[in-house]
């Protein structure tokens, strides 16, 4: 159970926040004053000795839990051998082994090739460049409420919150947006059963006939489950429809699995729930258990057209990250993917119990251990209640539970994949007390 030794935040945490404010650029926008000292599994301790249950995992990054012994051992072993030798210019076995492991876990029967980067943003950038290079086309279609990163290419496709773009225009040209098949906040106020058809028709009957001809579109990029947009699972048939559109018009289909991939949804890739195979997958976050790493994985027939020098970086494929990638994928494949499926189902069940108790919980949705709980002002109108979501996040922190929001009014649950059912029960008790305290 939680073990809070001091007032939250404690004196050492407040001192660290002051030191941080003096030297760090304020653009990051921290959400509450948690100052970490150490962690193990799903438990973390702050600099004042307070113990918390971590249900955000550094935004879905620490997939194998904090300081998993196999990950720590692999990093320590590699650090004693060599840390870096640029993968763009030379070869090394850790990079090859990581790529072999990663490509062996891709969906479908195709052969795949990898480009390693340092982040999800860079993986998306690589996907954009490859799509344009391969198709000889320029335009990209993304979706409203999406998040793909903050560099100019990825930011141009991101359409999550206006402050992410404010002050940075003009964006990269050639980007167009369609509507994501959101069953809770349905576009055009149509019945959920009609959402898939309306969203697909918008691409084919509106975008293609007004602003971007289909034969000028290089790729359509989407998240299998929208992350920053509110942990939104799309309506049935949406991804199959996107695959069909892409096949008919010679467009590449990119799945941004930066937040949803690497076992989080109970399958290695969230797109596997949809029964289709994309042309390119962007991965990061949980891929390295906390080390900075990303990967753009593309079907070999697409990636192999890239000429030497067409893309590259300095740190992609560095040895420490590659050892972490190999061990992470191994641990997830061997045990944690199944745990995410089993414990995720139990977590959803317990959250639905809270949904029945608290009137301002409008929706509980997700797959595996990628779960969203959306707060509404009124059940009939489904108007988002962002103030309540933020209040829940802040109060939960002061009770020893680390949560984050997403979308307009959603609490996201993206814990380490080592989460146990006992820890779910602890989280539900803390969350229930939190909801009572904030008047939910």
CATH architecture of the largest domain: 3-Layer(aba) Sandwich
Specify the structural class. alpha/beta
Q: So how many helices? A: 12
What distance separates the N and C termini?
23 Å
Count of spatially separate domains: 2
Number of strands: 15
From the structure above, extract its key features.
alpha/beta, seven-stranded mixed sheet, four-stranded mixed sheet, 2 domains, 440 residues, Aspartate Aminotransferase, domain 1, 15 strands, Aspartate Aminotransferase, domain 2, 12 helices
Overview of the structural elements:
There is one protein chain. By secondary structure, this protein is an alpha/beta fold. The protein folds into 2 domains: 11-67 and 335-438, Alpha-Beta Complex (Aspartate Aminotransferase, domain 1), CATH 3.90.1150; 70-332, Aspartate Aminotransferase, domain 2. Helix content is 38%, strand content 16%. The chain has 12 helices and 15 strands. It has helices at residues 11-23, 57-60, 69-79, 93-104, 120-135, 152-157, 192-210, 238-249, 300-303, 319-357, 386-398, 421-438; strands spanning 36-40, 43-46, 51-54, 112-117, 139-143, 175-178, 217-222, 252-256, 280-283, 294-299, 361-367, 370-375, 401-402, 404-406, 410-413. The strands form 3 sheets. Strands 4-10-9-8-7-5-6 form a 7-stranded mixed beta sheet, with helices on both faces. The chain has a 4-stranded mixed beta sheet with strand order 1-2-3-13. It has a 4-stranded antiparallel beta sheet with strand order 11-12-15-14, with helices on one face. Helix 6 links the parallel strand 5 (139-143) and strand 6 (175-178). Helix 3 (69-79) packs antiparallel against helix 10 and helix 10 packs across helix 12 (421-438). The longest helix is centred in the C-terminal third of the chain and has 39 residues, at 319-357. It is globular and about 60 Å long.
